[in-house]
Amino acid sequence: MLHLTADAAQLARHYGLDAHRSLLFSAIRLDSFPLVAPLIAQSGEDRFLLVRQQEQGNALSAGVPKERIRFYAPWVTIDPRVVADTPAAASLASLVAELASDDDRVHLAADVVLSHHRALTGTGALEVTADDRAPAPVVAHEIDTDAVLARFGGWRAEGVRVARRLIEGIEHLDGLAAELSATEDTRFAGLTALARERALDAVLLAATPNVTEAIGHAQPAGSVAMWLPEAERLVLLAPQGTPGIPGAAAGTYPSAGAAVRALSPGARTGVEEEFIGIGLARELEREGAELVGVSSDLGHWRDVRDHEDLGFQVVAARASVFAIEEALAWAEDGLAAGREFTELDIHAVYLDKIVEFRTAHDIPFGIEPYFTNLHSSNRMLFPGPPVHFPINAETTCIQLDAGVRIVVEGVTVATSDMARSLPRTAAAKQAYGFFFDVVRDGIIGQLRPGVVCEDVHEGTLRYLAPHLDRMREIGMLGTEVDFDTEYRKRNVGHLMGKQESFANELRPGYKHVLQVGSYGAAEIPWRYDDAAIGTEDLWYVGRDRTYIVSKR
């Protein structure tokens, strides 16, 4: 029998790996990191680390021996040479089926995410069992929704004041100040609409971005929130003995599952299938809950309300463009002076520049790192966090794709996601200049009310088409793959909803229609030969025009 676990302590013990520090997408996907985190698969004495191929470079950079890794979900790349010697299974389910082929039996630890359990059972070829989690008493606290709205309203008023001060006198952002508001708040109306659309009796929130959006406080460890749409009640369930729980005490229950059964008027319960473990899912089902996956729905709930926090988004964008461009300018000056340093040195400067921005502009709330994709192309073309790798005269390109989060009293109220690069070869420099045209004219130039997300992607391919031969001429593209076919497998941007959105992407198959107030990022990642180039800007669809919020 094959055993699977996502236990962080075992990852550290067996592989010296901290997914949140060493890998990229575990840091980006705040609402679904268990879905993309590595798994340990063991059968007898054989033990392997199961990793999505997009994290291949990071796992190897962290020191995990390649022979101890099995990859799945092939990485989308326009340079297939990068992965030519590294096979990857089409999906986790197909990889697990291969590893369990002796007897087709798989056992999951309670921490394995519900989505994986559903994917494995959905094959019909595997016998899947799972651990239960030990029941633990919880206390229920009812949260006053009017107090939540007032709390966010006060924060937002301050965010608007700061944002207006930051953009005053910036010509290309003229008019944006009039779009900033602290009065609109549809969070609870949106939750109720979601519940009615999916015919839910309750919506259970466990991922931090969703919990804090609902309760307006930092998430107590181990807690989950529950929205009851019929009564429009918000209840926080926390382990018994947790200090400082917000709200009014409303009862004690032997487990979270028992609390949901007692408090919900019916069985249909929305859950974050990309976040909760199979142990909690089984606990809920034992108490009679009918589980409905709503991870994507909740991502959409955050995405379409992001304009309500536009003041904070503007602060995040302005902090990001300053810190990223200043850090790369430091690196460029250092290389010009003949100095040698490391990726971690650039990262340290980047972090210092975030602090400098906050101090210089007297920002009254926190600005913290969200994620950092910073690497030399000499180390790898894969995206990933910085390591102790040299930057010197031989460096061909440096990519810095990163985001910050704006934090008020432990609650993330905005995030950013943008990228700049330091190309060092003639070809990479030429391509990088063109990619700004692609992002700002070819992608953001399409964004207006009524445009469908997937149509933006197709329009971007049309914009790129007449330039591909030139990319081949200068050595920034080959003939190994059909460019359009490969690039249709990835996005050219996304909305933002307190994180990079995976619910609404500028990508084939995504039907969301942009509206006044849509906010997101546009990007054209280009990783070929000796240059991994990132070019990405944040945009906002205003009443009269679309703004590039991350342009200096």
UniProtKB/TrEMBL annotation:
Keywords: Aminopeptidase, Hydrolase, Protease. The keyword Protease applies. GO terms for molecular function: aminopeptidase activity. InterPro entries: Creatinase/aminopeptidase-like (IPR036005), Pept_M24 (IPR000994). Residues 316-524 form the Peptidase M24 domain. Pfam families: Peptidase_M24. This is Xaa-Pro aminopeptidase. It comes from Pseudonocardia parietis.
